[in-house]
Design brief:
The chain has 5 helices and 10 strands; from the N terminus they run ααββββαβββαββαβ. It has 207 residues and is of the alpha+beta class. The strands form 3 sheets. A 5-stranded mixed sheet has the order 7-6-10-8-9, with no helix packed on it. A 3-stranded antiparallel sheet has the order 2-1-5, covered by helices on one side.
């Protein structure tokens, strides 16, 4: 067999080198994607929530309790402990510390059975909604989602004069006009993303 020409060997080495460089250039992309993963949201307990408290190997201490208007709960051996403003995991840790005075190495699990959420985790709707109420905020919640939860507008509503009051990070308030009448009639372009703590005000028509 005749040896390969020298220029052919050089060309082959260049091609292999380009392939290796191309493979290496894709590696940093994986690291970048991992760095921008979305943050995990944690539910904040609020007054009116219903909590299931499970204490492992202690069925007499396991119970379901409401969060009182003052934000506190009571379970056997723990007369009063603050629950509002805590995540279920944080409350479980606080209960373990409180119960540690009575039982050895308690292991507590807190499950939110029905929820309202802290005010900062609600979207409150006032005025001419069919059922004005505080709606627990859900990740990605839109204005249309809120209107579905409150049953739409009353016949007396001035939907296109509605507004969203939003508290900003610097403590100031922002007023955002919204056209609920058009949105409820199918104009999806007037939909918007809501934020926890928003207040939706729907005035009454003057006509």
């Amino acid at each position: 067999m005749r040896p390969l020409p020298q220029n052919y060997v050089l060309w082959l080495m260049m091609v292999l080198g380009l392939l290796l460089l191309g493979g290496c250039s894709t590696a940093p992309a994986v690291t970048h994607l991992a760095a921008v993963a979305p943050p995990v949201e944690h539910y904040i307990i609020g007054p009116g929530d219903s909590l299931e408290i499970f204490v492992r190997d202690n069925p007499t201490l396991s119970t379901t309790v409401p969060v009182r208007p003052d934000g506190r709960i009571s379970i056997p051996l723990v007369q009063s402990i603050m629950a509002a403003g805590e995540t279920p995991e944080e409350l479980a840790g606080n209960l373990e510390k409180a119960l540690g005075s009575y039982i050895r190495a308690p292991l507590v699990t807190v499950i939110v059975k029905s929820f309202v959420g802290a005010y900062s985790q609600q979207v409150r709707v006032v005025g001419q909604a069919a059922v004005p109420k505080a709606v627990p905020y859900r990740s990605g919640m839109s204005l249309l989602d809120v209107m579905i939860d409150v049953g739409g507008l009353t016949k007396f509503a001035s939907g296109n004069s509605a507004k969203v009051i939003r508290r900003l990070h610097d403590g100031n308030e922002q007023t955002i006009p919204v056209r609920l009448g058009d949105l409820m009639n199918g104009a999806i372009k007037y939909n918007m993303v809501m934020q926890p703590g928003d207040i939706l005000i729907i005035p009454q028509s003057l006509l």
